[in-house]
Design a protein that fits this description.
Layout (H helix, E strand, L loop, with lengths): L17 E6 L2 E5 L9 E6 L4 E4 L5 H14 L4 E5 L5 H4 L9 E5 H8 L25 E3 L2 E6 L2 E7 L10 E5 L4 E9 L11 H13 L4 E6 L6 H22 L4 H7 L13 H13 L10 H11 L10
Parallel strand pairs: 4-5, 5-6, 6-7, 11-12
Antiparallel strand pairs: 1-2, 2-3, 3-4, 8-9, 9-10, 10-11
Bound molecules: zinc ion.
Length: about 325
């Protein structure tokens, strides 16, 4: 077991994570403030086991998640579903050694190409802790269903590259709860550099059609379907900004600097606009959703947008 955490949630000013029971035995684990590397997870409590939805970015944060689950159920975590490959949702997977880890096939592929700590150049100072890359070893293409006693959980691939190339949602029809992963952000800037702007908009059409009353977003507080429209509005803003700025001969960074964020200025991690514009520009040049682009150049522009300072990260 790892060393006891000496981290004080009050010391970072973020407050403790919230465990929100969104339906009978269905919990959202919401970590403030939802900025870079500080994600949400969820868990479904059954009589003989727990299903977890995602882990956290660091050993410390994942152990706190496991403690919170342990307070709600003495049963083992037998199943873990990853919504996508990003390390804030998967780095802690190895701390659930008895769980069957399920994810989309392209989530697994992307994890295998993304070593833990690979982002340390952009985000120096994150203490990842004692965690090892542990990708899903049960993969699916379209859909897989889980049964937690009487609770039926549908895990759906969203159908196209969107936030990443392998995004899945967990839909609980009887409770009208949808865990969206990072297809929906609440209070943070949506981020589609590694997926597709157009694809993310199409994915939101799919998200909308579930008709969920309760949405557990990938970052930020539990919300309703209205938050889908905020994300969609932002993505259309990115597309419109890219069209105008590219026609005017501006680079993605220049476009980001000149753009008026308007209502989106209050979202956390505004510098993602520069990264999102890299993806939007590639799509204007004919790139297919999810095609590889120069992610390093996009992050360099996000740092430049921030005046050359490292990206704010409190993980
Ligand atoms: Zn993500």
């Amino acid at each position: 077991m790892g060393a006891p955490s000496t981290h004080d949630h009050h010391a970072d000013g973020l407050g403790a994570p919230a465990v929100v029971e969104v339906a009978d035995g269905v919990f959202a684990y919401v970590q403030p403030d939802g900025s870079w590397w500080i994600n949400n997870t969820g868990f479904l409590v059954g009589r003989s086991g727990v299903v977890a939805v995602d882990t956290c970015s660091t050993e410390r944060r994942t152990r706190a998640l496991l403690d919170a689950i342990g307070l709600r159920s003495p049963q083992p975590i037998r199943t873990l579903v990853n919504t996508h490959h990003h390390g804030d949702h998967t780095n802690g997977n190895s701390l659930l050694p008895e769980a069957t880890i399920i994810g989309h096939a392209r989530c697994r592929d992307a994890m295998l190409r993304s070593p833990i700590g690979g982002a340390s150049a952009v985000f120096p100072g994150i203490e990842w802790g004692d965690v090892e890359l542990s990708p899903p070893f049960v993969t699916f293409e379209d859909r897989i269903d889980l049964h937690v006693d009487e609770l039926h959980a549908e895990v759906h691939h969203i159908g196209m590259p969107a936030h990443t190339v392998g995004d899945a949602v967990v839909w609980l029809p009887s409770a009208s709860v949808l865990f969206t992963g990072d297809l929906v952000f609440n209070g943070g800037t949506p981020f589609v550099l590694m997926g597709s702007v157009a694809g993310a908009l199409a994915a939101l059409d799919r998200v909308r059609r579930f008709g969920a009353q309760t949405i557990v977003p990938g970052h930020g507080g539990v919300c309703g379907p209205e938050q889908i429209e905020v994300v969609a509005g932002y993505l259309r803003f990115v597309q419109a900004t890219a069209e105008q700025a590219k026609a005017a001969g501006l680079s993605p960074l220049e476009a980001a600097r000149e753009a008026d964020l308007g209502e989106y200025a209050q979202l956390l991690d505004a510098e993602r606009l520069a990264g999102n514009l890299h993806r939007a520009y590639a799509e204007l040049d004919g790139a297919a959703p999810g095609d590889p682009i120069d992610v390093g150049a996009a992050f360099a522009d996000m740092i430049a947008y921030n005046g050359g300072r490292p990206l704010r990260c409190l993980a």
